[in-house]
Write a structure and sequence with these properties.
Elements (H helix, E strand, L loop, with lengths): L1 E6 L4 E8 L2 E9 L6 H13 L5 E5 L5 H18 L2 E5 L10 E7 L5 E7 L2 E2 L4 E3 L1 H8 L6 E3 L10 E2 L4 H10 L5 E2 L17
Parallel strand pairs: 1-4, 4-5, 6-10, 10-11
Antiparallel strand pairs: 1-2, 2-3, 5-12, 6-7, 7-8, 7-9
Length: about 200
């Protein structure tokens, strides 16, 4: 089974190809939502050197809406041209090999999200909390806590970025967690729409 995975939900992009359980290509780069050339260069390398994957897995966030939508759009295009199955996984489930950890992130508007990852999947709904609430909640746990954001106010939290290699491994080990297409980003709150006057 050949699995191609990529994630653009944070400031570090990641792409990997797993073939028969072995990672044959893995790339990471600084991810700027205004400049996607490194991502498309890595995709070009995959398709120049290897045959088409059977499964395409994209990280669906939460994180950068623009980056996540670029990843999903690329997945849709690749699915159309290769016939591969397109699936998604939460990006926050690909931060660590550990089976039990917490993830926090900046949810904007003076709030933060908290997620509990267990067995490769998100164990509960993501919670939106204030800085004081999240500080109190994370002090209750004795498991690793990660973020992909710059959050110096939480000094016990380690910075980690989603790994496409881990997305590949999660897809292989926990296929029940795969979200089939059509995909959409994980939104932390309902879209805010301002009506015209």
């Amino acid at each position: 089974m050949k699995i191609l995975a990529f994630d653009l939900s944070t400031r570090q992009g990641s792409l990997a190809l797993l073939d028969q359980g072995r990672v044959v290509i893995s790339r990471e780069w600084p991810n700027d939502r205004r400049h996607s050339a490194p991502f498309f260069s890595a995709l070009d390398e995959i398709f120049t050197q290897h045959s088409a994957p059977e499964i395409i897995v994209t990280g669906i966030g939460p994180g950068s809406y623009t980056g996540t939508r670029i990843a999903i759009s690329a997945g849709i295009g690749l699915q159309a041209t290769t016939g591969a199955a397109l699936c998604g996984l939460p990006s926050i489930g690909a931060l660590s090999l550990e089976s039990d950890y917490l993830v926090i992130g900046d949810a904007k508007r003076s709030s933060f999200f908290l997620g509990h990852i267990r067995g490769g999947g998100v164990a509960n709904d993501l919670e939106l909390l204030s800085e004081l609430e999240i500080a109190a909640r994370i002090s209750e746990f004795r498991i690793p806590i990660y973020t992909s954001d710059n959050l110096p106010q939480f000094n016990s939290v380690k910075v980690r970025f989603p790994s496409a290699e881990l997305l590949c491994q999660q897809a292989s080990r926990f296929p029940q967690n795969l979200i089939p297409a059509p995909l959409s980003p994980i939104y932390l709150r309902e879209p805010h729409i301002t009506s015209s006057r």
